[in-house]
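WARN no homologs supplied; continuing
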Amino acid sequence: MLALGFANRFEKGSLLWWNADYTHYQVQARIPDYDYYLFVEYDACIAGNGSRLLADMIADGADFISHSIDAGPAWYWHRFHTGIYPAGQLRASLNCISFFSRRALIHLAQRRRAMSANMDKTGFWPLGEAFVASEVAAADLTFIPLARYGDVSRYSWFPPILSTELVLPQSGHTFLHPVLDQKRYIANLLRQTHFVRHYFMRGSALQRELGRFPGAVSRGQLYRAAMLRAAERLRQVCGAP
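OK structure emitted
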């Protein structure tokens, strides 16, 4: 990614977690002759007729299709991006399943490279979820919400979906995320549970879920997970990403 001219910048997590869009530009550069690209991350699932879905997306003339997120003040990442996308310019999208035209990917890669060349002046480095949707809107490219093509009621960050319990509909399209095996499912529950008290509160949703997997999580693991979550919430209160 660095050799392609993209900045080694991220505000949280890791380079490709924060800048998940980087990989899309690498694919387009290596396989440049497609008119359209559909990306599905490992923990996302499309239920339905994939060929029909792609044909419908192409027929609509979309440059970008993804699940739109309300980027208003209630969105956690809103306050960090207002210096980059002020005065109503901020947009956001959940891009675990995302469709792009070639011209959209080329434009976005150019914008990332331009920002990378001037990253010392950029300040906060934009999260991929904010960067892609905001830059698509600024370039007046066509953005169509994923919900136009099917059910997105179980397409979010939390709660996770256990892969062995996944039931796919018989008709239409359904988009799901995150779909995880047991180990990742439990890790997601421990990492994303919102309040420390839920780790130890009898009858909490976390306790009920973990009770389905006897012996899978030790008390020591629970304590460590609770401490990590407490530290995470403290950082958020202090204004850190």
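The chain is about 35% helix and 15% strand.
OK
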